[in-house]
Amino acid sequence: MMAGALVVGIVSTDAAECPRKDALGTSRILSVDAKTYPRVGLKSFPQTLPLADHEVVLTFDDGPYPPTTSKVLAALAQECVRATFFLIGLHATEHPEMVKRIAREGHTIGHHTFSHPFMARIPFDKARSEIDRGIAADEMALHGVSTTTPSTPFFRFPYFEGTQAQLDLLQSRGIVVFGADLWASDWNEMTPEQELKLVTERLAASGKGIILFHDPKARTAAIMPAFLRYLRENGFRVVHVVAAGAPPKNADAR
Fold first, then answer.
1. Which CATH class name applies to 41-243?
2. Which of 13, 22, 146, 182 gives a 20 to 30 Å CA spacing to 129?
């Protein structure tokens, strides 16, 4: 696809004003149309979101895990920043109040299977079940309704590993598949200081992009205030992604 064509179906609007005038804030909202934009993230796919230089999308995988997710949420709230959380269905079932809190605080909830398997290594029917069970668990935690039709049709493969048949299935259902443009490698053992250095150096080199973190990682929760401060001090702007046609945030989060 040509870069210009990719922008079709992506609508930007001003983000809500932040009461703290010195906060990083959320600079704008991108409404993503899955028909136009089925797959994003240069680590996995040929295209990514149409971000300007120094624009970033913050994403978090594998939650919710209250001890650390709560710290990540607090850091984001302090800077009036909105992110996207790709939830594991099993964890959503165990911590429904944290799922509701993520949504209530204005973040986007995407899906990350039910039990985080290697999707390319299991039969198609089992992979489809993992997708559906994960969505249903997230929706039950969020809205009290078990449905395989996601209220936000965003999905990320565990380990960024999926088959063409699985990609085709998600595309046929109008579900955007998220990869990433860079990541913090927070699944590796390292100190918070090492993680902060690694991700800021990668961001400085790329200049923009979809960033992957894992909110259950204590080292990631520990660096989030400093990382957001780095963004603010170095002229980066945070873009919040939502599904095309999504209702206003917080409408269903109680």
1. alpha beta
2. 182
